[in-house]
Every structure is written in structure tokens, then in C-alpha cells.
Design goal:
Helix content: 55-70%
Structural class: mainly alpha
Strand content: under 5%
Shape: elongated
Mean pLDDT: 90
Order of helices and strands: HHHHHHHHHHHHHHHHHHHHHHH
Distance between the termini: 97 Å
Number of strands: 0
Number of helices: 23
Radius of gyration: 29 Å
Length: 346
């Protein structure tokens, strides 16, 4: 078969020419022979040119969007070049638009999959995918700012991530979607993702209130690890008004973390939850609602946990928010805090 011979020779341009000369059904008929060739060379260490020629041939012989999607997700780390544009251009605009729709939900599979999808959006004029996976892949791609080969469309100019996002035609469509459910994007991710969203909301690209409310709703529904959340809260830098507005979600998180501290057995296990609690900065009035939970931490907990509970309870006593019954319930342990609250002076 001529196409296999061109692949064996590493003749990338020849592969593209041969694909262009074949009808779709003829290209599809070549797929089994190419699959057999891939299996045969798996142990022989093909050259870079041979591997690229095989990628071009196989992609050109996946003549339905479904088959092309399956191939791209299987061999998702191939190196794109101008041949990729030539092979994709063998197909109609409708075909390529369907491929975008299929790949948009899998854009995080690799930077190659994202870059190819973005190229097709620009090349066909089809709508940009709006899945969380595509948005996440887009933000990471802009952060890394990888150079596109000739004729591969996409990317954005700028010296850093924010400059590139400001110049990006995708930003007006994707950033408002990102802040609608931000937890799925930023929790467990590098903090620069949230920092970029915070900066863009400050510039009016999206609504900061929606970012804050959405992030706390997501955290309350599925609390993250404490060390991750503390970084997020630091980057978010709530205003006093925002702090008050998300009080129900913060209260839910405080209750969750106090429950987690009752279960944590070691200092290493409890440290992230303590970090999260301090970052939430619950007010005395809010802490007063969960006095019993704090008092429960005074017994048989790692030293830092009991010390934190004692600190909170003494602060409540200082504010006059700790009832005499609560003091009795705490077994007088608040008095162990040097210079403790009102009960220490009476």
C-alpha cells in the first residue's frame, strides 16, 4: 500500500499529498493497514519523521468525527505542525465543527487536543466550547503560552497571563462562565488561576460578587482540603461586606471543619483544618453558635487543636458571649489560657 510505504519512509509531505488524492472511503480503507504498521514498528524505534508521518496518515484515515475524536484521544501527545492543518482541511466545515463539539468536553486530555480544538474554532468560526474542561485547558494553555506552528491558529499576545487574557477573543465568553462555578476550576489548582479571575473581575470582565458567592457555594457543598482553601481565601481577600454576605456558607464550613477536627487523630491530620478555620475568620457571634463544638475539642485532641479551641472560647468569654452554663460545660478549661476571659477574673 502506497500510504504505508510513505509512512515507512517518513515522508510527511508525501503522506499529505496521497491523502489529498484519495476519496474518504479510500482513506478509511487504509486504516487497518496503518494500524498493523503501528503495531509492527512498536518495538523497532521509529524515527521522529516516521512517527509524524504515521500520525498524519492515521488522522487522515479517520473519516468520521467520532473516529477522529477516538484517535485524537488515544494518541493525544503527537506534535502538531503544518501537516495537521492540511489533514484537517481534507474535511468539510461541518465535519470540523462536529469535531470541535466532541473534543470540547475533553480538551484537558492534552495540550495538543486543546490546541487543535482552538485552531478549529478560529478556522471554522464555530462557537467556542463552554465546558469546564475547555475553560480549564484554555487557562492553562494561556499560562504556558506555547508557540503555535505555522498556520496553526490560536494563542494570544502578551508578556504574561493577564496580558494574554486581556487580548484574547475568548475571554469575554469564557471568563463569565468560569466565575459562575469557580470551585471546579480553582480548587486544587495553582493559585494563579484564581488570581487571574480576581484580576479580571476587578476590570469588569465578569462579576466579582458571582465569583465570591460561587466559590463559597462550591466550597460549602464539597469542602476542599484546608491548606488549599487557605491559599484560596488569601487570594480572594474578602471585603467586610463580602465576608458578611457569605456568612451562611462560612458557618457551614466552620461546622464541617470542627467535625473534621474531632475525627483527626494527629497533628499532621489536624493542621490543614486549623489553617482553614483561621482563614475563614469566623466572627465571635458566629463562633458563639458552635460553642459546644469548640468545647468538645478540649478533650483528647492534639495539642494545637485544644489550644485553638481554648483560644476561641476565651475570646467568646472576653466578648461576653460565653454563658455560665457553657463555662461549666467546658470544665473550666478556658482558665488554662494565660490571661483568660472574664471567668478568669471572677
Amino acid at each position: 500500500m502506497k500510504l504505508v510505504g510513505l509512512v515507512r519512509a517518513g515522508d510527511i509531505a508525501g503522506v499529505v499529498r496521497e491523502l489529498s488524492a484519495l476519496r474518504p472511503d479510500q482513506r478509511q480503507a487504509c486504516a487497518p493497514a496503518l494500524a498493523a504498521h503501528r503495531k509492527a514498528i512498536a518495538r523497532t524505534g521509529p524515527t521522529a519523521e516516521q512517527k509524524t508521518a504515521l500520525s498524519a496518515a492515521e488522522l487522515g484515515c479517520r473519516v468520521t468525527p467520532a473516529a477522529a475524536t477516538a484517535w485524537l484521544l488515544t494518541y493525544r501527545y503527537f506534535t502538531m505542525d503544518t501537516w495537521t492543518v492540511d489533514v484537517l482541511n481534507l474535511y468539510s466545515t461541518a465535519w470540523r465543527t462536529e469535531l470541535v463539539a466532541r473534543l470540547g468536553d475533553r480538551a484537558t486530555a492534552s495540550d495538543t487536543v486543546y490546541t487543535l480544538t482552538e485552531h478549529l474554532v478560529h478556522d471554522t468560526g464555530c462557537p467556542v466550547p463552554t465546558s469546564q474542561q475547555f475553560i480549564l485547558a484554555w487557562l492553562f494553555n494561556r499560562a504556558h503560552n506555547r508557540e503555535r506552528p505555522a498556520r496553526v491558529r490560536g494563542g494570544a499576545p502578551g508578556a504574561d497571563l493577564l496580558e494574554r487574557l486581556r487580548a484574547d477573543s475568548f475571554t469575554p465568553a469564557l471568563v463569565p462562565l468560569a466565575v459562575a462555578r469557580p470551585g471546579r476550576l480553582v480548587l486544587g489548582r495553582p493559585v494563579w488561576l484564581l488570581e487571574a479571575l480576581v484580576a479580571l473581575t476587578a476590570e469588569g470582565v465578569a462579576d466579582r460578587a458571582e465569583l465570591v458567592d460561587g466559590l463559597f457555594a462550591d466550597m460549602a457543598a464539597d469542602p476542599p482540603r484546608g491548606s488549599e482553601a487557605a491559599v484560596v481565601l488569601d487570594a480572594l481577600a474578602l471585603t467586610p461586606a463580602e465576608h458578611a454576605r457569605v456568612a451562611p456558607e462560612r458557618a457551614a464550613l466552620v461546622r464541617h471543619l470542627l467535625g473534621r477536627l474531632r475525627e483527626d487523630g494527629t497533628h499532621a491530620e489536624s493542621a490543614p483544618s486549623l489553617l482553614f478555620l483561621r482563614a475563614l475568620a469566623a466572627t465571635p457571634a458566629e463562633n458563639a453558635l458552635v460553642v459546644r463544638d469548640y468545647a468538645a475539642l478540649l478533650d483528647d485532641r492534639p495539642g494545637p487543636v485544644a489550644a485553638y479551641a481554648r483560644e476561641v472560647l476565651a475570646g467568646l468569654d472576653e466578648e461576653g458571649l460565653l454563658t455560665s452554663g457553657a463555662r461549666t460545660g467546658a470544665g473550666g478549661r478556658i482558665l488554662l489560657r494565660p490571661g483568660g476571659g472574664r471567668s478568669a477574673r471572677t
